[in-house]
Amino acid sequence: MMRGLVLVFTLGRAPEHARDGWFGPDKLQHFFTSAFVQSVGYGVLRRAGADNGPAIAGASVVTAVVGVGKEAVDRRTKGDFSVRDLVWDAAGAGSASVLLVRTVR
Fold first, then answer.
1. pLDDT of 17-49, one tens digit each?
2. 56 pLDDT above the threshold of 90
3. Cα 68 to Cα 96: distance, rounded to the nearest angstrom
């Protein structure tokens, strides 16, 4: 656990991340967009007949593909790939998953 934190803080101090802070409007957009994609993906899979667990897993895969795809496009067009954006994507997807699991009937 400690090694992971050291890695995160070390990466956070790298010069190429100077323009990419941990907080800002961009990060909120990543959080809420991923939460939305996770929720829609889950709803579509449940409507198609998937059980709760597979629907969460499938929606998570879709959300991850969308997030990484967005960063790949950013890399190609702007020259930057943000791991911090992906962290916020994961936080949004995870938060939506927690809410979805708690509302299952």
1. 557 889 988 899 999 999 999 999 999 999 999
2. yes
3. 18
SS3 for 25-79, per residue? Answer: HHHHHHHHHHHHHHHHHHHHHHHCCCCHHHHHHHHHHHHHHHHHHHHHHHHHHCC
The C-alpha atoms of residue 34 and residue 99 are separated, in whole angstroms, by 13
Report the alpha-carbon distance of residue 58 to residue 64 in Å, rounded. Answer: 10
Q: How many other CB atoms are there within 10 angstroms of residue 16's CB atom?
A: 9
Contact 55, 42 (CB under 8 A): yes
d(CA 64, CA 47): 21
- Contact between 38 and 93 under an 8 Å Cβ cutoff? The reply is yes
